[in-house]
Amino acid sequence: MGGEGQWQYLYIPQGVFERMAGDTVAELARACAPALQNLLQAEEFQDLPLFVNFGQADDDATEIDSLIDPEILNALPSRYRRAADQAVMLYRFFENKEGMNYAPVFTALLGSIDEVAKGFIMRRLQPELPIAVDEQKAWFTPYMGDLDRKTEDYYRKLAQNLKRTLVFNNGLSLIGLLRSCLDYALNDTTKIGGVFEALHTQLRFQGGRKFLETVTRINDFRNTYIAHQEKELTDRNIAEQELKIWIEALHMIGK
Question: What is the pLDDT of residues 129-177, one digit of tens each?
């Protein structure tokens, strides 16, 4: 559309959309108009996250900066900064309400956390990845020796996920993968070869144990409260503390 045109938000309730028989935006807008009026007249309108800070950008920045070190926020790439801002604003919306589950605050950061984890793995290991397909296959399936079946199965799954990440760019549970890689590099003396040898040489660095501690904490928190929701995250103090750690980790892992 040209720069001279005007545009507006269109509020579309799911029920109206599912019942919609027409096939034009104008018809959809007319069908949704009554629902929009009801929303505007509702007492809860002003409390919705979409509108609670509307027109108060300076106040939003102050609230975010008071929770997270401004130097860390300003150092984040724009896509991570947007995720951090969204998470903090959602936390601020929840913090003074009774009985809230803070899990959605962290959902806003899941994609960014996995992305920085993948980036770290690729920066460290991709230069070691063999070019030839046959050599890659051997690199990801090294001889396991006389390991018991359970241990061998663990290593093979770890190597398979590394292959998905480094070769096919579709690894799974990437913050968990990073934790497993760091744990092997720093704590596991099993000599396997291939990609595991690369873990030992490339993931041992000054401050590595503190790094592993932070990654483990994020992964455990993710699995307990966010991904599997084994427990409800209703403690505001825990949510605030972990939110700081997650956002600071975006900077730490990604730099």
Answer: 999 999 999 999 999 988 999 999 999 999 999 999 999 999 999 999 9
pLDDT of res. 149: 93
Domain total in the chain:
2
How many other C-beta atoms lie within 10 A of the C-beta of residue 85? 19
For residue 14, give every residue at least 6 positions away whose Cβ sits within 8 Å of its Cβ, in sequence order, or none: none
Q: Please, are residues 76 and 60 in contact by the beta-carbon 8 Å criterion? A: no
Structural domain span for residue 20 = 1-41
Structural domain contains residue 223: yes
- C-alpha separations of 155 from 152, 193, 198, 252 in Å: 5, 11, 14, 27
Alpha-carbon gap, residue 184 to 191, rounded angstroms: 10
Residues 250 and 214 sit within 8 Å (Cβ to Cβ): no
Whether residue 87 contacts residue 108, with contact meaning beta carbons closer than 8 Å, is answered with yes
